[in-house]
Amino acid sequence: MSGMVGEWVTLLLMAFALGMDAFSVGLGMGMYKLRLKKIFNIGITIGLFHVWMPLVGLIAGKFLSDKFGVFATFIGGLLLIVLGVQMVWSTMKKGEEKVISPVGFGLLLFALSVSLDSFSVGLTLGIYGAKTIMVILCFGIVATVQTWAGLLLGRKVQGWLGTYSEALGGAILLAFGLKLLAPFW
Fold first, then answer.
1. Mind telling me which residue stretches traverse the membrane in this protein (predicted)?
2. Helix, strand and coil in the chain, % to nearest 5
3. What's the rounded Cα separation, in Å, for the pair 34 and 176?
4. pTM (2 decimals)?
5. 135: Cβ contacts below 8 Å, ≥ 6 apart
6. What is the Cα–Cα distance from 3 to 8, expressed in whole angstroms?
7. How would you classify residue 129: left for phi > 0, otherwise alpha for psi between -120 and 50, otherwise beta?
8. Distances in Å between the alpha carbon of 134 and those of 50, 56, 96, 105, 138?
9. Which residue from 139, 108, 143 is spatially nearest to 24, judged by alpha carbons?
10. I want to staple 113 with a disulfide (CB 3.0 to 4.6 A). Which of 21, 43, 79, 117 is the partner?
11. Where are the domains of the chain?
């Protein structure tokens, strides 16, 4: 019994650490003028990606090497940089349509970028034989809640910063993407 409690605590801590990127990026993305319904949908989408990506990672972890996890982190960093640059660029181009926004393909790109690290961790957990249901429940629920928290906090900050909030949100995404890519330099 104590082994199972220890495993839950470990997985919750891992889920919290992995969900911090969803929180940070949600903080930046929350600076878009988002309605509560959209915030709810974004949180659910990110949570589903944090279920799906580690599940795929767990399965692949039984067959692939750790090198693939490095690739996933690299791609996630690049995606965040693209999103961040687009947000900063769109504030400079007044009156033009945004290239990427948190709807449709933009939302999927956003969700993918913050959940790729869950894939990497899923690979590792798959190699070590972690319990699949425990992993995906922890990762999905924690990522959803942390995304909602980041988006709601970003929404509040957006009201304080006015038109510069989107540029700040883009800078947050850009900085987080650069942080992910730092080990590759």
1. 12-32, 39-64, 70-91, 103-127, 133-154, 161-182
2. 85, 0, 15
3. 21
4. 0.70
5. 11, 54, 55, 58, 122, 125
6. 9
7. left
8. 13, 14, 45, 29, 6
9. 143
10. 79
11. 2-184
